[in-house]
Structures are given as C-alpha cells and as structure tokens.
Sequence to fold (302 residues):
Amino acid sequence: MAVISQTHTGPEKGGNYEFHWCGSFIEAHLISDVGKKRSRNEDSCALCVPDDRQTLSDRGILLAVADGMGGVSGGDFASRLALQTLAEEYYTRREPTTPARLSESVSQANRRIFQEAENHPEYYGMGTTMSAMLIMGDHAYIAQVGDSRVYLLRKSERIWQITDDHSLVAEQVRNGYISEQEARTHSLKNLITRAVGTKEAVTVDLFAVQLKQGDTLLICSDGLSNVVEDSELAKAMSEGDSLQAIARVLVGRALQAGAPDNVTAVLIRITGTPPRTRLEPGAQKVSPTRTGLFGALRKLIS
Fold:
C-alpha cells in the first residue's frame, strides 16, 4: 500500500481553511471561506503528495475540491468523505492508467457516499461535486462531476475553463438557449444534473492538458465562479505576486460580491520546467490555444 505522508485537507468543523505548499517544480495554495450567508462550510479541498519518490513518480500529486450538499450535516460530511476516499483509492488502485485510476476512485467515492446515505437516514440525499486534478510531470489529468470548475491561465493566453459544468443552466448555455450572463442570475443556476453520491453510479468526465512552466491553474467551487466573472479571475491570477495573494484576492472579491455560498479555491503554479511524461490514454485532451471554432465545437459536443 502506498504511503501518502503529506495529505492536507480542510476545512475542519465547517470553518475556514488556508494552506500553502511548495514542490520541486510546482507550488499550490488552498483556501476555503464559509462566505457571508452560510453558517457552515460544506466545501472541502485536498492536496496529497507521496513522500516515497517512486510513488510520487508513478502516481503524481493529487489536488481536489468538493462542494457538498445534503441538509444540516450531510454536505460537509459528503465532501470530506469524497476526498478522503478519492485519495485512499487513487494511490492504491491497480488500473493501468492515470485516467482509469482517477475514474474508478471517483466511482468508489460515489458508492461509499451513497451507501452511507442508505444506511443513515440523517444523510439521505447527500452528495457532492468533485473536481480532481492529478499532476504527472508535464501533464494534468482532471476528473469532473458537478459544477465546481478547473481553469488554466497561460501567459499571453486567455483564461480557459477546462471542465464542463453538469448543471441545468450550463446545458441551456451550451445549447444556445440562454447567454452566460443570463446564467449568472438564473433562478435554477444551482441545480446540478450530476453529483457524487446521489445515485448508485456516476459518470465521470476525464480531461488531460499538457503543462508549461508559468501555467497557473485554479480548481474552485461555484461559490467563487458564480459571483466572480472569468475576466476577473484572469486578472487576479495574472497580476498577483504570489499564489497566497491571488487566493486571498479571489476570496475577497467573492465576499465583496456578497458570497452567498461557501468559497473554495485551490491554486497551482508550474514554477519550473516539469519533467516530460507521455500522455496516457483515456482522457479527452484539451489545449488552451485552441479557441474560436474548437471551443464552440467542444461545447456543442459536450
């Protein structure tokens, strides 16, 4: 069994959380705030770094955000359990590729949460979103369920939303029924169509992106992306001197906008030249340089 001695998850007891970490070619900053309208933080975030060099080389670094839902205590329990199960499963599973291990780990988290809800009436209906990123050298593999998001900002490029939201409003935007601006104020904007733990099985979206030195990535809950526009995210991510400063600016802007939901962000920066790795099969490869027609076609297909 792989030993992951550096596992950092938060927040504790429904409060706020902040943590910073630096590696050989990467740094990360995790932050979570309860917001202005909620009494409890149901978001969770995680960073897992194997201490063993071989495990680190073979399995990489795991980062994730989960946004829980489900009553007084179900939401934060679901998000914490999802990330705990994700880490335990990913670093011990024997599937031959990273995308396959990620997908099966999310599926196992789904089964575990569903069973807990079945066995404990107080947790009935609980579930969570999950956006998980596994960094293997110069490739990032992303598993997506729900409407938390993963963004990439590259120098001289626009901000790129790698993931697709699994929500009723997002589907209407992709189908051209409403605009992205209309979606921000839509009465059903929080109604998601896919979640971890609400059904016996879940479909997991898998993406892969090649990384470059200087890239900044953001994994966030909808408590941030629903109230801070992409252009403002890009501005903060490109102008900040440090990941800690960027993280606090992003949360601050969400709070200034009223922060009706919990706000969680995991920021990752590629600070050095990442080791070259082969692209593993099983995930949809995306490129931040393919804008215009490619972006429109990708939205149509999804």
